[in-house]
Amino acid sequence: MTKFAFVFPGQGSQSRGMMEGYAEFSVVRDTFSEASDILNQDLWRLVLEGDDTELNATVNTQPVMLTAGLAVYRAWQSQNGAQPSVMAGHSLGEYTALVASGALSFADALPLVRYRAQCMQQAVPEGVGGIAAILGLEDEVVRAVCQEVAHGEVLEAVNYNSPGQVVIAGNRTAVERGMALAKVKGAKRAIMLPMSVPSHCSLLKGAAEQLSVYLDEVALKPPLIPVLQNADVAAYSDAALIKNALVRQLYSPVRWVETVLAFGKLDITHNVECAPGRILAGLNKRIDTQQVSLAMNDAAALTQALLIFA
Q: Could you say which of 13, 36, 85, 91 is catalytic?
């Protein structure tokens, strides 16, 4: 039997109309209705016709992407899709993976990720933080760039997305210096990303402390499917260890390259992006060419995946 992994994206994969390709699955709309009732906000309207400013606000994006990923997973289950051997999520997607794995309830996860988003936004005032993608440099060169131009501010490599694609974050002025030096060092591109929160850097340690207090009151169960968590590239069954990894994730790098390579060590032959979009599938293809990377970004792609893993 083919061993496969499901992966769930985080912020950056959202777009207006992104759920239209799943119209034939009633469970998708039902999942959005459930989420809307939990949060007292019409998330279906938001993804169908919300403007970009509203959809891209962190406090909206995080619940929306959690709901979208879980809705696609439920559509997969509704068609008697096989169970993946392992799961992982990129940043916010880790919460989606924990819900899909049975470790965290949907009703608890939605207010949790909204609170997480609020803590992140409050931790770094608008305009203070920055986040940028550096393309075409080795990881160690990017880390050296950060160290060289930090000048007492925070500047760190925060997302190891694929070979030659590293995201840096910290104080916006330091990020700008890092982008300039990266180009001098030979980077093909250095792109400031349209996110006001410098995710996964040490500027978010205060937010992590607030999240830790909140998580103390959240019930977690051992996952039914292992979830490789970002901070350690490890799967935990103990609730305290899962929570600790979620807290550290806020100010630690997303080790995505290592995560996908870890799938290979587990004899995973296919990884499947379980959500609208195909950002992770694109990254995964560049990380490990021995694995087949797929995206279930609409009903046709989901149906095709069902045939592969039947």
A: 91
Told to judge if 36 belongs to the known catalytic residues of this protein, a careful annotator would answer no
Give me the residues paired with residue 162 across strands.
165
Rounded to 5 degrees, what are φ and ψ at 110? -65, -55
Least reliable range by pLDDT among 8-17, 96-105, 164-173, 269-278: 8-17
Cβ-contact 92, 99 below 8 angstroms:
no
- Per-residue HEC secondary structure of the chain comes to CCCEEEEECCCCCCCCCCCHHHCCCHHHHHHHHHHHHHHCCCHHHHHHHCCHHHHHCHHHHHHHHHHHHHHHHHHHHHCCCCCCCEEEECCCHHHHHHHHCCCCCHHHHHHHHHHHHHHHHHHCCCCCEEEEEEECCCHHHHHHHHHHHCCCCCEEEEEEEECCEEEEEEEHHHHHHHHHHHHHCCCCEEEECCCCCCCCCHHHHHHHHHHHHHHCCCCCCCCCCCEEECCCCEECCCHHHHHHHHHHHCCCCECHHHHHHHHHHCCCCEEEECCCCCHHHHHHHHHCCCCEEEECCCHHHHHHHHHHCC
Residue 201 phi, psi dihedral angles, 5° rounding: -115, 170
Catalytic-residue membership of 199: no
From CA 23, how far away is CA 39, in angstroms rounded? 23
Place of tokens 């992104």: 18
- 173 half-sphere exposure, CB direction, 13 A CA radius: 5
**In contact, 221 and 103? CB cutoff 8 Å:** yes
Contact status, residue 81 vs residue 100, Cβ threshold 8 Å: no
User: How many beta carbons lie within 10 A of that of residue 300, not counting itself?
Assistant: 11
> Distance (Å, rounded) from C-alpha 87 to C-alpha 103?
12
Q: Which of 13, 200, 270, 293 is catalytic?
A: 200
For the stretch 38-91, pLDDT in tens is: 999 999 999 998 888 898 888 999 999 999 999 999 999 999 999 999 999 999
